[in-house]
Each structure stands twice: as C-alpha cells, then as structure tokens.
Amino acid sequence: MAKRRELSQEQFRALHDGLVIPAHPLALDENRQLDEKSQRALTRYYMASGAGGIAVGVHSTQFEIREPEHNLFEPVLRLAAEEVKKAKLDRPFIGVAGICGGVEQAVAEAKLAAELGYDAGLLSMGGLSDLSEKELLERTARIAEIIPVIGFYLQPSVGGKVFSFDFWREFANIPGIVAIKMAPFNRYQTIDVARAVCYSDRRDEIALYTGNDDNIINDLLTVYRFQVGGKPVEKRVVGGLLGHWAVWTRKAVELLEEIKQVRDGQMLAADWLTRNIEVTESNAAFFDPAHGFEGCIPGIHEVLRRQGLMKGIWCLNPHETLSPGQKEEIDRMYADYPQLNDDAFVKAHLSEWLS
Which burial class, exposed, middle or buried, applies to 272 when counting CB atoms under 10 A from its CB (0-12, 13-18, 19+)? Predict the structure, then answer.
C-alpha cells in the first residue's frame, strides 16, 4: 500500500492554530445538472474570504452526488482541487474530502481523494448503525492508512449515533487521526470527545474542531480541562468545519481572528455570550431546526443565490427545498444582524470569481 501523505508542518501548525473550513455546497442549474461556473466560483470565494480549507463531498455537497445516476463525486472533488491548485496560495490550505459508506466504499473514496491531492478525509460514521464500535474503529484505521483522518461526531437527528467515551479514546489513539469535528449538538457528548482526546497519548497531534452549529462562538472560546493521571490536561476547540460557514464566510474568518485575539485572556467580555446567540439564531434560519433540519441545504443555497454565487436553490433531490417560513427567517437575519453578512465583499469580487 502507498504510504499515507502527511500534512506539511505548515498545515499542521495552521490546523492547530485554528482554521475556518467551510463545507462546500453543490451548485446546480435549473435542470439539476452541475453548474461548473458557479461551482468554481464558490471555491474561489472561500479562498478569497481567507478560509483555511474547504470540505468537499460532505453533507452540504449532498450525499446524492455518489449515486450512479448523478455520478458527481469525482467531478466535484476534482473541480475544487483544480481551483485550489490554480490559486497558488501563499498560506497553508487544507483540502478535506468527505468519506462515507462501508469499508469498501470508504477505502475507494479515500484513495480517490488522495490521488486528487486532498490533504485529509472527513470520515462520516452516518448510516452505519449495523456496525459495532469495534468495527467502526477498524474501518477508521483502514482509512487512516490511506489519508490523514478528521473524525466526525454527527448528531443523531441526522443519522449519527451516540458513541461511548471509550470509543473516542480508542479513536484518538489511531495513528493518522489529525482532528475531530465535534457536531453532536450536545454538551455531554462534546465533552466526551474532548476528554477522550486529553486521555490519549496522541492528544498533541489531534486538533479539536467545532461542528456544533448551535454553539459556535462558545465552543471556540472554551478550554477543556481534565485530570489525567493526577495532572491537569487542557485542550481547546481551535476552529470550525461547518456548513454554517459556507455562507458569510468572510465574516466567519474575521470572527475567528477576533476570537484568537481574546481566547487566551483571563477575562472575556460578556458581549461574547450575546454574539453566540446571534450566530446561533442565524444558523437556525439557514439550517431549519424548526423542521428537523429538512431545509438546511436549501437554506445555505438561498443565501448564496441572493449573493449571486448560485443561480438557484436546486438540490439533486427535487423534494429538498426551503421549509415554510424559512425564507422569511433568512430575511429577518439580514434585517436583525446586518453585521453578520458579507454581501459587500461578495459584490466587490463576484465578477472575477465567475469569470
């Protein structure tokens, strides 16, 4: 087997300092075919915004890209990889490929991602309820031999399952795990992951990332401290790999930079708690928890459509569309929290990204 390509030292340092990694959407035309021009424009937008990476082939890119009738997994990963290569960025940037399915499928997807030049794989454990924790750990180890792995604790309401503390401790001990995206939307389960990583001898090799869209700012300001072998061990959540950051990305980058300026201080302004609620409420408009997250992908699309980055909100699944009242909620976010959007930034650069 070919040797796993490791992250460069610059990428490793950047990952541990904290990056904004948007989950890349899928741009379609009115016939629900890939809109290559808009798809490339999105990748250019994320790089121009200052994002430290992109995650492609993940939930926001629509899992249906893997279905034979669409056959878009490889083309979509390739387009993003081409744009990143073409940009010749003078800063560390991490290409993350979503990896799904049983062992055979996951191995094939990891090999393709590595061939296309992706730096890491976000390994989904969704839809695998028939596998035991031991079997999922064996699957993870197989993938980590091919490409550096970002673990993913997915909320149960959208197909994830609840894992034990021991599972995450074993998970963290697997060579090749470089980060874990914590997205159970649950404080107890988030703490389990952080504690498990602190208990691992590999704790300094693993970066913690938030995927908790309901608590983004608080996650990024939190240091987790646990007693390990009678000594305090600390770990903080350094960045985010988020569908939420697929929109208003320039502002997300500014937000993370602002957090980095204050996160090591002894005192935090109470205003951060209020800002956390503002971001969470805007996420509710985009991600549609009011209807069990049914409108989460169209919600992202709607914001990008308004900005001109996408032509429409079409999804591969024709039944996937905005929920009742969701458009009005997005209108309200624009009215109530104008400081959160990056419309002016997009407007200034849109024509060059679409060229």
Answer: middle
Let me know if 334 is exposed, middle or buried by CB neighbors in 10 A (0-12, 13-18, 19+): middle
CA distances from 152 to 58, 195, 244, 296 (A): 11, 15, 16, 18
CB 166 within 8 A of CB 132: no
- Chain mean pLDDT for the chain: 96
Is the separation of the CB atoms in 14 and 92 below 8 Å? yes
pTM of the model: 0.97
| Terminal Cα distance for the chain, rounded | 41
**Whole-number Å distance between alpha carbons of 127 and 160:** 7
Average pLDDT over residues 152-160: 75
Alpha helices, DSSP H only, in 100-152?
Answer: 103-115, 133-144
Residue 162 pLDDT grade (very low, low, confident, very high; cuts 50, 70, 90): confident
Do you know the residue count of the chain? 355
Q: Cα-Cα-Cα-Cα dihedral of 197, 198, 204, 208, to 10°? A: 50
